[in-house]
Design goal:
mainly alpha; 70% helix; homohexamer
């Protein structure tokens, strides 16, 4: 009942651990993830701007900062569940939206409700900023899974996540920032010294060549 | 692809933390919770037997042991989400069942599939054993929330969980084991030395008197 | 002084970490271990039943569920100490039994004492259910050490534990469930992708051939 | 050696724990703190805009997002040390700036260096956005210390931090967002249910009345 | 097989957590405990010296530093077990000594064996240094339990430990350092601000007056 | 205000984690590190004594025990910062000394101030005991970095720390204890079974041959 509840809720995002139910050497909270996605989006936006695109920075930062806030209401549900069926996925979005709406109407004074409803809605749309968010979200996921693979986590799930994240990034390969990422950043990542190097580089090479 | 995967999956239940997204002094995994629920069900069954009820122990232990195994596929989704709408709740059960069925068919040799499909289905039915499971599950939840309240966790959610758990137990108040619990165990719990004592005892008294 | 103390004590088993004094990537509590042993015993019992053995399920579940409860009184004492001498081992069992008896007499109302004394006594006897417990206990230990070895824990102790657990399982190799385990489950475990693969497979092969 | 190193460094900020050397019930990383400060700054900026101020959102988000990045090079040095002497404080800023400059010149391609030098410099200046950052940084610190006090952390340091943070916020009391914070948010915070309530409310009252 | 193993074993003492099987807000390792006991013994020795006693500092430091090293072989066995019977206690000491002897003979070159056998033997004898060790060991235990009580740990065990530790210290009340401790240090401890203050001060007062 | 504050401060050293800001498989506190350095110094002193050197044991133990106590005031500042410039390093020492002096004068009764000022001053001087401390401090750092490298921590920093620690030890290679360490202990360390073995042995060989 007030902005105080909203400020307190930010700390709850530090308590939601991503990828629950699997052993991880290094855990990441939704709060940390949101920070990193926003920083990555900042870099990607900078690349787009250098290439002549017009970036709406306010929108970009807001999309990135808020993109996982609704996990406050739902937790980090396992991806396979969320997308188990089209029908469920649709229902899930509806529930998230509904809970977000209720939260905003309960906690925010009326003069702030419209702006927060706008800020907390799904940000991955077809705008330049929405696409940068989609890419930034997957780049952080790529780094999370890379961190586990590099530390020799034997769980094959992390290779699958790496692969899925890279495939999603490639859906946006016409973007300048994705081109930059693939050429300059992914290359450095795959050149890192580590045990499963061959397997990982093989997966990446295969996906890129497809 | 095989029972080895099933055995490995047991350890994943140690990685799912109950009540994600809230600060807790003491965390509990789904594996630990399942152990405690089975031990509590053992005691409740013993009370029922003493009172002349016929307990099918094999069924009781299997229900208790397996009752949260499907969280392996879905994670510990926040209860408000799960029950946000009747429609969603129904869909959720369907998804859980479907994923469980797929897991059993993929990992278990065919001669074990029927028995594991039976073991992993929803256990909270109208049988004596199903009702004991419902009560045992809520007693452990009562203890989890009591533990936080007793340690002065300022989050009001734990008082709400305590209240909700106690209300659900009272739905089964005609059972011998619930009568025993209310008379002998809850009393001792509420007599424990702690700061918020008055508030907690007040809630319990109010619910019991309703 | 009452069943409330017994219910509370279940949570203390979540605080006893197995294999103290050695760095572990993934820690396991006695509560989680008890859950996994009971689930493994369930599978082993199922195999025995399929092979025509008569399994007393109530007894099997009770043995598995309760087999480490006395660690509540003693902690997880290092195995080398426990078995440092025949004399000490005998004394240790005596002390565990005595402390368990005192606990039951102090916390349980008299009408439940006999049944809990029976439930909490050493379960690894010569019955089918006792032998299944012995095997299930070692299979979970095998998985715990395998988990560390697969994550490249450099501590040689985990290879020793793996070896000792496998040797103990082999003492029961005439059992149907052990035959099934060796043929179908251990094989899959040893085929997992990991660094020390050769060394581990070598150890297992050597033990099996002896 | 590339933007890859910069992306990897974001995860190092998850490893720097704020307020080292004191027992805390809940730990906060620099990454989480940066996320929360940016979210708080977003709200404060919204209040300023509603009151007719012209907010440069791009600048505000960048200041908030990056304000503790240089802790990557220095760690979270205890505040009393940092400000032990004017001379040391000045030297410290110089060192931070120098290390940031070296990092940018080493890791970023030349076309990005100017923009990142700008982004990573000290953000707490006299502009509206710089002052919002100063306030948002202290509000999160206030919440961190409040969280410990509310959980009955006996360490008096957290009362001192609460006091110091509130005093700093009051230095900006002519700002619309600070007026809003004091009137609507702080009030709700101090009305929360908790043990040390009287003492904390007393401190806040005394500071506000001075 | 060599001093390298001895150096590595020091890190294992960081993995043994004191008081296993009970929820604690703050955990302490045997390594940290040994450090604190040695620092406390240093202060107590200083008091004795000021009062004219002749302190053998080398002996005092060695006793304090090494006094829990044999827990490397046995773990932190719960005190009630260790002392469950005179017979068991005696056997336990014998086992610890035997395992220490074997370790020294296996890992240390022969020229160092005598000195390390001397260093690792039980240090709590009737000498001034042995008595200082007994007191320092209990003072750290007093602080550990005080820390839990002050943070409102509801487990009554910590009040019992506090009481037992204080009683043991009083057995040495003729020592100058104990007199100093009771007069100057315990008083300040009991004057600390905290919730259970009355109960704790009551216990201490009662013990001191007995 | 009293020795009670000093005793309490010892526990704060358990809360300062060494090498902040980098992912580590195993964390080490300043308290544990101090314990291990003192134990290592004990062994090195023993070697010196065997070789005919006259060791002042009281001084040696006090230097080792107290060498990182001032981190209580400053935290574990990243080494590159501390030594970023000669000027800063000097200022840093001054600040540490000043804060230590203030602490001693505030917390210790006047009769203990002189002895504690002496005990808490920088111990790494040119005396035999000062040089043993320098070596022991780096040996523990060598073991800390070795532990990470052996567990396949992909962060190159740990190879750098290993290299830097070994180089510093070699500065004292004329000492008997360093000769013993290089010949008997380092050899065993480098013969340990682990993945990055070749790379690590290569670094050590190169440094030793320089």
């Amino acid at each position: 009942m007030g902005v105080h509840q909203y400020f307190k809720s930010l700390s709850d995002l530090e308590q939601i651990i991503r990828c629950p139910g699997k052993f991880k050497f290094q855990e990441h909270s939704v709060a940390s993830h949101s920070f990193k996605v926003t920083k990555i989006a900042q870099f990607l936006g900078t690349v787009e701007e250098k290439c002549g695109q017009n970036v709406n920075w306010r929108i970009l930062y807001e999309k990135a900062l808020n993109h996982d806030y609704p996990e406050l209401f739902t937790g980090d549900i396992k991806t396979p569940v969320k997308y188990a069926s089209k029908e469920l996925k649709k229902l899930f979005s509806d529930v998230e939206e509904e809970m977000t709406r209720k939260f905003v109407e309960k906690e925010f004074p009326s003069e702030f409700q419209a702006i927060y409803l706008e800020r907390l809605k799904e940000g991955k749309d077809e705008t330049l900023e929405g696409r940068i968010l989609s890419v930034a979200d997957k780049i952080d996921l790529l780094y999370e899974s890379f961190g586990e693979i590099q530390k020799d986590n034997p769980e094959p799930l992390f290779l699958e996540i790496f692969e899925e994240a890279l495939r999603t990034i490639l859906l946006f390969q016409e973007m300048n920032c994705v081109k930059y990422f693939l050429k300059h950043i992914l290359t450095d990542m795959l050149n890192e010294r580590f045990t499963e190097h061959d397997e990982l580089a093989g997966i990446a090479k295969r996906i890129l060549e497809e």
